[in-house]
Amino acid sequence: MQMKALFIGQSYIDITFVTDHLPIGDEKMVARDYAVSFGGNAVTAAFSCAKLGIAPDLLASVADDWLGRMFIDMAAKYGISVHHRKVAESSLSFIMPKGDQRAIVRCRDDNFKHPFPLLNLTGCRALHVDGHLPDAAIHYAKICHEAGILTSLDGGGLRSNTHDLLPFVGTALVAERLCEQMNLTPGEMLTYLRSRGCRIGGVTMGAKGLLWYDETKNERFLPALDVPERLVIDTTAPATSFTVPTSIRIWSIPMPSGSSTSSSRARHRRIRSSIRQRSEPAHAGADQRDRGAVRRAAADPGRAWSRSRARQARDQACNRAPLVSRFRRS
User: Can you give the residue ranges of every domain in the chain?
Assistant: First the structure.
């Protein structure tokens, strides 16, 4: 069976727990709830892709221990073909969510025992990387770039190869943390991504939303969904899960036929429509939006307050005065 898409990244087993207090010293606590799952940027993206009906190939770190075998079993249940990059121990993430934030402790083994495997890319329509396994990411990004295979990057933070990898990436979505590490505003990050040759780029800003530019280099802002705080359980990996359906739209990969994926195709169409309709141009239309906000306030004060709060978060995140179209410094 030919490869449909290739994902490359570090694999983790995520242990997420909810507790009111983190013990110190010789204290002991019992968590209110917990969950065990797969983790890692590209790994989570691969599982999300499989959930949408496109089972990809995954090149990831895998250890010959019980956690590694559990990870392989998880992948098999999703129909994901795993290509192993052997390490001595499986990597773990301990995640403690609280409100709209989460603290993470990572235990990572990236001391690879062997070179990355050479794969047959015949039939591959897309490549998605997170910057981990840096030699493999660069190698396959170059091949896919030269072959006209669309590539995307989930750049959560600064990696050793980020600068060198970007010229071979068509779509780059990075986290606000990368802006902080590089001492850039989100608007300046978009300028940087354009300068490295990325056709589409964006900065995910958590509850504030997404600042991005399209193929025509027009900058847009996509507000985050206004989810009541009482309904927020765990904010781990929402950007990663968002990246995959967005990339599927950009890649134009057809969803499989059959009744089992009809709901996936429906979600895909809703995502396409939502991105287009909810994105606001970042460089024009401020006056029209302001007048629209007044009309919405008269009709629905609660909804208008919610949109106003989202807009204020956008302005603050982009380091600009409210309703002034200046997303990057001149």
Answer: 5-317
Using pLDDT thresholds of 50, 70 and 90, give the confidence band for residue 269.
very low
38 near 70, Cβ under 8 Å?
A: no
- Runs of H (alpha helix) within the chain: 41-51, 66-77, 134-147, 162-165, 176-181, 186-195, 238-251, 262-278, 286-299, 301-317
Q: What phi, psi does 63 have (nearest 5°)?
A: -110, 155
Contacts of 132 (CB under 8 A, 6+ apart): 8, 9, 10, 40, 41, 42, 61, 110, 159
Burial of 238 (0-12, 13-18, 19+ CB in 10 A): middle
Q: Does domain 5-317 have CATH number 3.20.20.70?
A: no
Mean pLDDT of the chain: 77
Of 215, 213, 192, 223, nearest to 283 by C-alpha is: 213
Helix, strand, coil percentages (3-state) for the chain, rounded to 5, are 40, 25, 35
Q: CA triplet 177, 279, 191: central angle to 5 degrees? A: 45
| Residue 235 predicted with pLDDT over 70 | no
- pTM value? 0.73
Q: Are 221 and 282 in contact (CB under 8 A)?
A: yes
